[in-house]
Design brief:
- The protein folds into two domains: about 35 residues, no CATH class; about 70 residues, 2,3-Dihydroxybiphenyl 1,2-Dioxygenase, domain 1.
- Helices cover about 10% and strands about 45% of the residues.
- It has a four-stranded mixed sheet with strand order 4-7-6-5. The chain has a three-stranded antiparallel sheet with strand order 1-2-3, with no helix packed on it.
- A hairpin with a 2-residue loop joins strand 2 and strand 3.
- It is globular, with a radius of gyration of 15 Å.
- The two termini are about 20 Å apart.
C-alpha cells in the first residue's frame, strides 16, 4: 500500500492469513490499526475501544517517569514499562474512554 502520503510499514496476520494489526506511515507519524479482537470483551463497548494511539517519545525522555505520572493520575495500566523484542521500551494504558495509549521509546 502506498500513495502520496500513506505507506504500509508492517502487518501481522493470523493463522487464516487475515490481517489483525498493521502499521502505516502518514507523513512523519506512525498509525497502528488493529481489529476489535485485540480488545478484551469487557472493554468493547467503550468509545475508544478499538483505537490505539502510539506515541513515540524522544530518546532522552524518562519513560519510567512518564509511566509513574500516568499511573498516579489514574490511568488503567495494561502493560508496564517493558523492553520489546524489536528494541523499543514501551508501556500501554487505557484512558477513561477506553482509548489505548502506547508510549514507546527506541527503535521504530
Amino acid at each position: 500500500m502506498h500513495n502520496l502520503w500513506v505507506s504500509l510499514n508492517w502487518r501481522l496476520v493470523d493463522d487464516n492469513n487475515a490481517v489483525t494489526i498493521a502499521s502505516i506511515n502518514l507523513g512523519d507519524s506512525e498509525i497502528i490499526l488493529g481489529t476489535i479482537d485485540l480488545v478484551p470483551p469487557a472493554d468493547r463497548d467503550k468509545l475508544g475501544a478499538s483505537i490505539r494511539i502510539h506515541e513515540h517519545i524522544a530518546p532522552d525522555a524518562d519513560i519510567k517517569q512518564l509511566f509513574i505520572r500516568a499511573r498516579d493520575k489514574g490511568a488503567k495500566i495494561v502493560k508496564g514499562v517493558e523492553n520489546r523484542d524489536w528494541g523499543e521500551r514501551a508501556f500501554i494504558i487505557h484512558d477513561r474512554d477506553g482509548y489505548n495509549l502506547m508510549i514507546a521509546q527506541g527503535r521504530l
